[in-house]
Structure formats: structure tokens, C-alpha cells
Amino acid sequence: MAEEPGVGIAEIRKGSRPAGAAESASPRTPKSGTGGAVSIPIATLIQTAAIAVLVIVVCVLCGFLWSARGDLADHNDRAAADKKAEQVATDYAVGAAAVNYQDINAWVGKLKAGTAPQLANKFDATAPKLQQILVSLKWTSTATPIAAKVMSTENGLYRVNVFINVSSTNAQSPEGAQTTVTYNVTLDKNASWQITDVGGVGGALPLK
User: Fold this and answer.
1) Which end of the chain is least crowded, N or C, by CB within 10 Å?
2) Which CATH number fits the domain that encloses residue 176?
3) Is pLDDT at 2 greater than 50 in this prediction?
């Protein structure tokens, strides 16, 4: 039996491509890689944040501590200066109120002790008149401190009120008398605590 012409060739032409041909012809879509990504555990992030917060808290606390130490130092300095001013003013007031008419020069020396030159000159000018009054009255007095208080400070000037108890005897009151006197003493811290002004001396002396 004779074969039909052209059948084999047509089948070959109409036939499908060999296996694997379609796969090689179509381009493959590349898969996205993950080689550049970095993974950080959540626990590490939490730990890092906690350390950062702790550092901030420590810095803030250190700032508060430093400020508190500075305030405390300033307070201590002011308290020490007040105490010094009160002590110097008290010593001066007690000396100024203690008089012995038989030794007026020593008393005038106590009036001038620790004072600024301008104030010392004032005492030198008034000493002769005071001497006449005290000697004629045969005045003697002693003084005991009661209290002292800084009333104000300005530019290194300390104004202190000193309260003292004065016991005195004189020709008119030989039995003696007691009185409380307030001295107003101004001191200059910037001039080694020199006394620049004194008020209240008249309360302890018979100046009228």
C-alpha cells in the first residue's frame, strides 16, 4: 500500500517544539533577594532605649545636685558673713558702752577700734566734750550683750542692731541703774569689716 505524499513532512512542521524549548525561550523573573537587610532583635532595641533614658536621668540628676550644692554653698557663705558681722558689731558695742571716767583715753580708744578713718576722726573731735561730762559725773558702766541681728546688706555694707544691757553708776545715782541700749553698727565687709557708722551711743551715755 502506497504512503500518502507529504503527510510526514506536514506532521513534522505542525508538530510541537521539543520539550524544554518553551522554558528556555521565556525569560525567568528574578527573585528578590534578602541579602542586604539587617534584622535587630526587639530585646536589643528595648535595652538600648532603656540605657539612653537612664543616661538622660543621670544627667538631669547631676544638674540638680550641682545646683543644690551651689545654693547650699551660697547659703552657708551668707550665714557665715552674717555671723561675722554680728560678732564684730557686738564686740564693738560692748566696748563702747563700758566706761571708766578715770581712764577716758582707754574708752576713746575702744570707740575708735576697728572703725574707718573718717569715723575715728569724728570720735577724736568729740572726745574732749565727752570727757568733761563723764569725769564730772564720775561715770562708770559695764555692758552685757543680749542679741545682735543683721538688719540689711547692700554692696558689702552690713547694718547690724546690737542689743546690750548697760549697768551704770554715777555721782547722781550711786546706787546704780540698768538700761537696755540698741547700737546701730554699719560694717564694710569689703574693707576687712571696718565699722563705718555707729548710732545709739547716746543711749548708753549722759550726753544731754
Assistant:
1) N
2) 3.10.450.540
3) no
